[in-house]
Amino acid sequence: MEALVFVLLVIARVSHALPQHGTVALELSALDLDLSKRSSSSSSSSSPSQPGAILANRMDDSQRNIVFWAATIIAVLVSLVQGAITTLTDICESEGMWTIRFSLGRREHFWWTGIAVALIASLGSMIVSFLAGNNNDSLGILLLATASSLAVFRYAWPAWRNRHYCSNRWAAWTGPSRTGIDPVLIPYLPNPDRKTGKSRAGSNAVPGSDTSSLWRDMDHRAPTMKLHPVDIRFPLLLRTTLIVRDPTDILKAFQQTSAVPSEQSLPSTPHLFSTPAAPAPPASSKSSGSGPSFEAVTSKEKPENESARSALPPGVYAPILPGHAASLRWGRDLGFSPRVSRGILSVPNRLLTSHPLTESGHNGRALCLAHGILGRNKGLEPQNFILKLNTKMLEEKSVQWPRPSKVLRSYFKREMEAAYGGLGPAYVDAATELALLLADSSHSLIEDWLEKGMEQQDYRLNREAYVLEASDEDLRLLYLLSYAAMIVSLSAHSKQRQVRPETSLFVALWKATKPTEPLPEWVSSQEMVTRMANERAGLDSRTDLDGLIAAVLGPSPRVPVSP
After folding, report:
1. Going by C-beta distance under 8 Å and a sequence separation of 6 or more, which residues neighbour residue 83?
2. Helix 459-467 vs helix 472-480: angle between axes, to the nearest 10 degrees?
3. How many CB atoms lie within 10 A of CB 320?
């Protein structure tokens, strides 16, 4: 359709310009008639006699030429701009530069509105030229009117209606990401708390400018590496101090220049498992490959290294176990520029257009948003997420009830099985339910939910539990419940809600799996009691939080054994 608009513009300009300049292509059939018209027009230029030229007596030749060239220049510029934008979007989609493509998508309604206004202005100038006596403009007027109508009703209007989706698509794909950090790279993670000697009590703070500056320093000092196409941004138009490269790329590149992290090479990043004040603690039995299950840990049993935990690097979820990968939550708060998740490489192109479709031909917007969220928040054990959905109960208890999109469950599940089947049926069910909930949610609710970071495991809660001496297994359990919390959060979301029901889910699971044992001490603390009260604050009157929790945990939840 963009090509049709371009062709119509070219034809309109050719039909408008050729008679004015005596091009022989239009004189072959009536050369003598054309000559007679030129002679008569030169003898009566002050008072043309063309029918319908109601403005002929009000405009002289110079004014008519100005109008003619104004219409021509506007149409040519529109053709060039639209051709350039169309070519750029095609290049981005074919070469995988999705950060640029989705950034452009947020502004589609602006550029199509500009093109439509310019075409209408060119059409108005052509009409004025026609009324001034340029009768050969009639075909150009017809073609330009067609192009203007297409631009307005086929592109500009739908683009305005689609602007909220394009904005949410950007947020779903470029929000904070969760990346696994190889154990050999963990010592290189920037940690300003180590440099300043802060105590463990301050380790739950949100990452700030100190951490951002450390990451930027590492980025500048690390060898230059070629960017992945997904990571590419506009190099000149978006000058920024934010980091463009992926954090794992920076750590790997920096590792090549520093074989062993030390105070000299990394003054703010000493080894995480040893401190100047205490020797490195021995690895607990839980960190071995055959560690005990969740049921083996009680509220009174704490690992031997619990009291000697180091201050964690900002952005890293607790715990960090020797010999195990760490989970880093990174984004703008750590100084990184927003970019589309590389998980987009596994998504079919039909779901990445401005008007996506499923393989069955249904609206695919919710699937695209779900893929963006799931590409950023998996963590280290996505195959072990605790989730056993009772879909009927979940539908009835959610604020989106009566959930009209539930009829698409089989179509959506087929898409999710193709993408995430290797992570197990529980993950596929969670992905399907997330897409269905997004399909039934308003644009404003999705925008608010993503803006508050409800799709990610609560970083503050993780750090607070760490400070309150939660065991490593309790911290792992909070992570394994993160997808259940995500589903409940979206099912019960309102603009007054600020936190996810992660603590409530933890308590419900504990009571279901260990009904005779007391809750861990950290759960009974004043901070967590206040937290659980906040999790129930701002709920919609239609929402049954306990019912939603029961719907995602099932009647007999099972806790996977620690790896």
Report:
1. 6
2. 160
3. 21
